[in-house]
Amino acid sequence: MTTRIEAPAAVVIEPGRISPGRARGAAPLRRDGPAKLTGAAKYADDLVFPGAWYGATIRSTDAHARFVALDLDPAFDWASVVVVTAADIPGDNIVSSIKSDQPILVPLGGEIRHHAEALALLAAPDKATLRAARHATRPRTESLPPVFDPLASDHVFAAYELLAGDVDAGFATADIILEGEYRVGHQEQLYIENNAIIAVPSEGGGVTVHGSLQCPYYVHAALKRGLAMDDRQARVIQAETGGGFGGKEEYPSVISLHAALLAGKAGRPVRMIYDRHEDLAATTKRHPAIVRHRTGVSRDGRLIAQDIEIVMDGGAYCTLTPVVLSRGAIHAGGPYRCPNVRIRARATRTNTPPNGAFRGFGAPQTEFAAETHLNRLAEALDLSPLEIRRRNVYHVGDTTPTGQVLRSSVAGEEVLERAAEAAEFERLRARHDAARLLRAGSGAVPGSPLRTERNRIASGIGLALAWHGAGFTGSGEVHLASVASVELTADGRIDILVASTEIGQGMRTIFPQLVADALGVPFESVDIAPQDTAFVPDSGPTVASRTAMVVGGLLIQAAGRLRAGVEGRTGGTFAATYRDYASAHGSLRIDQRFEPYPGVGFDDATYRGDAYPAFGWAACVASVDVDLDTGEVHVRDVVAADDIGRVIHPVLAEGQVEGGTLQAVGYATIEEIKLRDGRYLNDRLATYIIPTSLDAPRITTILVEAPFDGVPHGAKGVGELPMDVGAPAVVAAIAAATGLWINDLPASPERILAALTGVDAVAPLRPGASEPAHAAGSPGSDSAGADR
Amino acid sequence: MTVYRFTVNAVPVQVEVPGMRRLLDVLREELALTGTKEGCGEGECGACTVLLDGAPVVSCLVPVCQVDGTAISTVEGLAPDVGMLDDLQAAFLEAGGAQCGICTPGMLMSARAYLDGGGGPDDDAIREAIAGNLCRCTGYTKIIEAIARAASLGPAIPGGSYR
Predict the structure, then answer these.
(1) Cβ–Cβ below 8 Å for B136 and A190
(2) Cα separations in angstroms, A65 against A89, A135, B163
(3) Are A611 and A577 contained in the same domain?
(4) 8 Å CB contact between A641 and A422
(5) With 60 as the cut, is the pLDDT of residue B2 above it?
């Protein structure tokens, strides 16, 4: 007799779909889930290349200096070490981006413009030799005077001016005018996988780069220019990527060039795997910004005039700053109707590490200011934050500051009402207001010295609303001219060919969903080709909330043409006949190129027109507890209502909202980088802190669907939208709890205590923090290329 | 160099390495078990969490000399067989608890220890159990949901959860 042992409750994985009936709704399970859950997924550092060496970067310890010499200790045995300097660069010593200002390596005699700038590269067969070689390398420099204050810098990377109506005339008729200044600092993307690139020399003087990255063709372009290679010599393959959030949009180009230079000189693969400290110290952050608002309203709370001035700190090189600033400027007024608007924006150069892309891309900075200012206006008018938004939120037919008429897919009011209702905003607000007034009557807060009250916790609830343009800004998508392909292979498989990358957001799941639906075949029948520039077309970068909407739309069109092509030949349905078609006629590949959406146009010269084909809309209600003794904020609950157009996959979409919301909560409360002499002080995970599961609020997500009619599936973007709205909601909740507005993020315990006690306890934390803003620079921009 | 003997996912192994070599490197480089990830190298992020005699530890801070004679469990040992998932992994897949996936192995090991210790579907207790594991993608919501779902299914069958 045999005893049958019941196996543990395990589930057989069939590709893409397991355990029928247990999954939620009809959406398939994450395609890349099983590999990630079993440890089988291969991230860059998991890839093995026999004989590979390890690479390292020699970096500047000055913020601004002349690079005089690179001293190599003659006592060290350099025989088994490769040293690369700018003199070894075969192509342009430029990291290809909007402007050609950033060198791959600072040349001897050249100008070092920021701390941690790359000066030279080393590679060695093992980590111990590499470490010893680093210690035997000494850059010699001569200091130059640095500029740290973006307000004082006279080097302007970009400037824009948006005008609508007559601002001065508007202020003349306003009943109340409120001014305010808001400041936000750096924020680190903090993907849990550090930047990692491995370069492998190939036949014919080429190089193949494997790495953690968002935009294979950005890296491809950078390699071609810096290494003087042609399209085929440079090849980029994305490894499994452990988070990006914008942080792997541009910097992988730099690391790829470094690794490729070392690999070329060493004649073998070279691994450049950053540790956390190097990643934090050297790679891009969210731009700090100073935003000043002057707003005129009628007594009943209608916006009459907005005058907004934005200054962003670009850091030492231009990177993507012009387009970050552009997006920030366009979103700066918030999702509100206002007849008279002036938005002046400029970004300047400082001797700090370059700032770059991070989820939201300029909008979280300016929308924090806009929403906090609107909440203060509501307070000044004795209006509910909900009511002031009801009176001003965009409706269909309204016109934005770039002159864009919002023709459809406008859901600001819908998300506002859904979030407020689900969170019981008005009821809780009244309760917290009463509690605050009671405390104020007791003389405890505000303005009291620190003291332990029996009830030291003050609770508050706050509301914010935001909009976020989906896709590249202005004519950016037209300039990109992305191509996405669907191929029926000769052996009867269906393959998606795109350069869009899976970075956790779910591309590898939603694209097969869309294509399977368009072809009328099961999800499991559609494969997705690896993101390898040798095989996939340039479907653009995986940024700007564009993947589901823009590239997804192209794939549906391509699949529709493929289906028509097959059905036209076979006379049967695609599903029933595509295998027969393939064996009879061979492969059929459809390349779909982006065409401008009907009725959507933008004039780059005048900066007017449809800034985005569609906007997503988000409302956030945050509930906080503030400890009046310690200044600590605990964000307890968040209700997020997000209109993202037609939802492709509810679980993945909710995941985007929840993750973006927590990044916004971190931005609002704890994430901070302080600088000394242009060096980040918070350059380790012990000092740059992000929310843990204990810091995270309970998040309730409400998905709202106002479809975009320019794409067949009606999807808009979801990635960035939640990042815009969380921070002002949290700050409003802190104000509701304490009666104090924190205008300088993060609302750290130090800042809250300083505000509570009425003392200026916080020393200026960022360059220029105590100086008044100057007037905006001249209009026009020195940027070139596609705008996002 | 010393020889250290221990088990990894119930398989006896022996490695001859310097005693202060990080367990993380021994797993990834000597034993080719790359499922365990490095996120910070200083014990802050929890991505490298493995179980040492059933207790979660950050393998970047454990020198291999300390694991001699112990039983180590890694993410590779969770599923009962190739092409299968255990209850916890299946719950993560269904709930959407993994996005980019880099924190997932460590997160799963902390959650496994919590469940094996008799942890239930209580939100606060789950948050406490994974407080040492940073995730930047999910906002933790669906991770907590997944662990609660796995906890509701009851304790794993003894000895059955690991290969």
Answers:
(1) yes
(2) 22, 21, 58
(3) no
(4) yes
(5) yes
pTM: 0.93
Provide, as residue numbers in chain A, all residues whose Cβ is less than 8 Å from the Cβ of B28.
46
Q: Which residue has the higher pLDDT, A786 or A638?
A: A638
Query: For the domain bounded by B2-77, which CATH number is listed?
Result: 3.10.20.30
> What digits encode the pLDDT tens for the residues B4-49?
999 999 999 999 999 999 999 999 999 999 999 999 999 999 999 9
Which CATH number belongs to the domain containing residue A233 in this structure?
Answer: 3.90.1170.50
Q: Write down the domain spans for chain B.
A: 2-77, 87-152
Are A719 and A359 contacting, i.e. CB atoms less than 8 angstroms apart? yes
Question: Is A49 near chain B, with CB under 8 Å?
Answer: no
Nearest CB neighbour to B101, from listed A12, A242, A244: A242
* DSSP code, position A162: E
Q: Per the CB < 8 Å rule, is A41 touching B123?
A: no
Q: How far is A769 from chain B (nearest CA, A)?
A: 29
Please answer whether residues B36 and B106 qualify as being in contact, where contact means their C-beta atoms are separated by less than 8 angstroms.
yes
Residues B87-152: name the CATH superfamily.
Answer: [2Fe-2S]-binding domain (1.10.150.120)
Cross-strand bridge partners of residue A346: A159, A311
Calculate mean pLDDT across residues A726-753. Answer: 96
Q: Which of A18, A31, A32, A36 to mutate to test the interface with B (most CBs of B within 10 A)?
A: A36
Kindly identify which residue of chain B lies nearest to residue A189, measuring between CA atoms: B136
Is ipTM strictly over 0.90?
yes
Domain holding A248, by residue range, is 44-145+194-284
- State the average pLDDT for chain A: 92
Instruction: Answer yes or no: do A694 and B33 touch at CB < 8 A.
Output: no
Q: Chain B partners of A686 at a C-beta cutoff of 8 Å? A: 42, 44
Bridge partners of A63, per DSSP, are none
- Residue B36 pLDDT: 98
Neighbours of A526 (CB within 10 A): 25
